[in-house]
Amino acid sequence: MNNSTPQTLPAHLVPIAIQPSDIDFMGHVNNASYLTWVQEAVIDHWRALAPAEAVAAHLWVALKHEITYRRPTFLDDTVIAHVILEKVQGARAFYETIIKRGEDVLAEVKSSWCCLDAETLRPARLARDLVEKFLPSEKTA
């Protein structure tokens, strides 16, 4: 894929439900909860845009997360994950997920994911027409 093409779709927004179990001994959300939120948000993005047959045929596994925590999150906060697919390269997808409370950025997460064939559990490249549902300006290299 052409990796220099800018993102043209708006962020996919996913509301985050903060549970009492997310709160740590310091009274704010435990850092580990952010990983769960990112995984749920990225998978929600995939399911929202991919056709049902593609969702059934592919699984996604996280390869790497890099989290920058900006502000603490509390139980009664209204939080939204802003999911942005940055690029698709082979069987890998690169995302940025920004977790926000209103205009306040709570955390920024860069993550990479591997697409797997649901039957063989082996890495699988996505068809160009499927990638274009997520990144319409992408062209195959």
From TrEMBL:
Keyword Hydrolase: yes
GO MF, one annotated term: fatty acyl-CoA hydrolase activity
Protein name as annotated: Acyl-CoA thioester hydrolase
Keyword line: Hydrolase
Top EC class for this record: hydrolase
Listed EC numbers: 3.1.2.-
Record family assignment: Belongs to the 4-hydroxybenzoyl-CoA thioesterase family.
InterPro entries the UniProt entry points to: 4-hydroxybenzoyl-CoA_TE, HotDog_dom_sf
UniProt-listed CDD domains: 4HBT
Keyword Zinc assigned: no
